[in-house]
Design a protein that fits this description.
Keywords: DNA-binding, Transcription, Transcription regulation. GO terms for molecular function: DNA binding; DNA-binding transcription factor activity. By secondary structure, the protein is an alpha/beta fold. It has three domains: 60-134, Arc Repressor Mutant, subunit A (Orthogonal Bundle), CATH 1.10.10; 153-227 and 333-366, 3-Layer(aba) Sandwich (D-Maltodextrin-Binding Protein, domain 2), CATH 3.40.190; 230-323, D-Maltodextrin-Binding Protein, domain 2. It has 14 helices and twelve strands. The strands form three sheets. A five-stranded mixed β-sheet has the order 4-3-5-12-6, with helices on both faces. Strand 8, helix 11 (264-276) and strand 9 (284-286) form a beta-alpha-beta unit.
């Protein structure tokens, strides 16, 4: 290190006597407090020291990275508070602080900004937290599935599905259970934006839904199933059904049932209104639940915009009716999303093939 110091100070205009005094002064400090020797070094040497840190490697991580490191990163990433993170792990705060120091030393990075009231992840910290979360989710799924198989089960498939595809999901699940009776199947129904986040964090094996932003095309593989047709649904006894000609503008004074603003369905509706120069309805209820929507429609004169696929059976049974209104705008096609560059499990792959077969059969039947 002394050689490095001479190397750098030699390139500056420091006279030899001054340099000798400078070295002697710092050697005295180092002799008295060896634990703080780096504080005595010029910044240029500290920079060189950081440059000499060896590159990260898989072997280094496998030797030193532990699950408790990932658990702390996940807990701290959610709470931004060391005390709360320590509580979640059932350890003391000093122990949690020591674990974080070990992690930052391993990666050679500051992962959290130490603020007066909380701890804010740095940009690189967010990246490492995401890795920790995905690894923990994958590990949790592995443990759960392995335990299930130890008890005589045949694995598990976790499926995310958007609302309104029961016509496709239900027969696919029944076919899968015929082939693999002991396979556990877990279904999470949410909007596409939520499901895609769950898929990215490895909480799901696949999603039957649609893209909600352009960058997702780079993250997920997509198998197209079909386009989504929208319709305006009402109670079978609704007064509007008696009118021969009706337009969307005539419906603005009626109470509406709509999805939240962040959903693709609502964006399509609001975009259609903007194209027509219409204001959004003032009297509305927001929900993503198809069952709540159906109950409200059957008990009132409300109006709802829904995917045709989600209400087709209810229209056939006479539980609700469809108004003769079409939309120029269309939602993106829906299909099956999986993580890019990652092969689904054999059971998940088999289920995907079944879904595509059922979807093909539905298209032939409707054609």
């Amino acid at each position: 290190m002394l050689f490095m110091w001479l190397k750098y100070t030699g390139s500056t205009a420091i006279h030899s006597n001054e340099l000798i005094c400078h070295i002697q002064f710092h050697l005295v400090i180092i002799r008295r407090r060896p634990d703080t020797w780096t504080a005595c070094l010029p910044d240029v040497i500290k920079t060189e020291k950081s440059r000499l840190r060896p590159s990260l490697s898989l072997q280094t991580l496998s030797n030193r990275l532990k699950l408790r490191h990932l658990v702390l990163l996940d807990a701290l990433g959610r709470s931004h508070n060391m005390h709360l993170a320590a509580q979640q792990m059932n350890i003391t705060q000093p122990a949690a602080t020591k674990i974080l120091q070990d992690i930052e030393d391993l990666f050679g990075l500051v992962l959290f900004e130490r603020l007066p009231r909380n701890m804010k992840p740095t940009d690189l910290g967010e990246f490492v937290i995401r890795f920790a979360r995905e690894t923990l989710n994958a590990t949790g799924k592995f443990v759960e599935e392995l335990d299930h198989m130890r008890k005589g089960g045949h694995g598990m498939v976790m499926i995310g599905a958007t609302y309104g595809i029961a016509y496709l999901l239900s027969p696919s699940i029944m076919r899968m259970k015929e082939k693999r009776p002991l396979l556990s199947i877990r279904v999470l129904e949410r909007t596409s934006d939520i499901l895609i986040t769950e898929l990215e964090e490895k909480n799901l094996d696949l999603v039957i839904g649609r893209f909600t932003s352009e960058h997702q095309h780079n993250t997920f593989d997509f198998r197209d199933i079909a386009a989504t047709q929208m319709c305006v649904a009402v109670n079978p006894t609704h007064p509007l059904l008696a009118q021969p000609d009706i337009s969307l503008a005539q419906l603005m004074d009626w109470p509406w049932i709509l999805h939240p603003l962040s959903t693709p369905t609502r964006k399509l509706f609001e975009g259609t209104l903007a194209d027509m120069g219409l204001k959004s309805p003032a009297n509305l209820i927001e929900t993503t639940s198809i069952f709540t929507t159906l109950q409200l429609l059957q008990g009132s004169n409300m109006v709802a915009i829904l995917p045709v696929s989600s209400v087709r059976d209810y229209i056939r049974r006479g539980m609700i009716a469809r108004l003769p209104i079409s939309f120029d705008r269309q939602l993106e096609d829906y299909g099956i999303l999986t993580r890019k560059g990652e092969s689904p499990s054999p059971a998940a792959m088999e289920f995907i093939e079944i879904v595509l077969e059922v979807a093909c059969g539905e298209e032939i039947e409707r054609g």
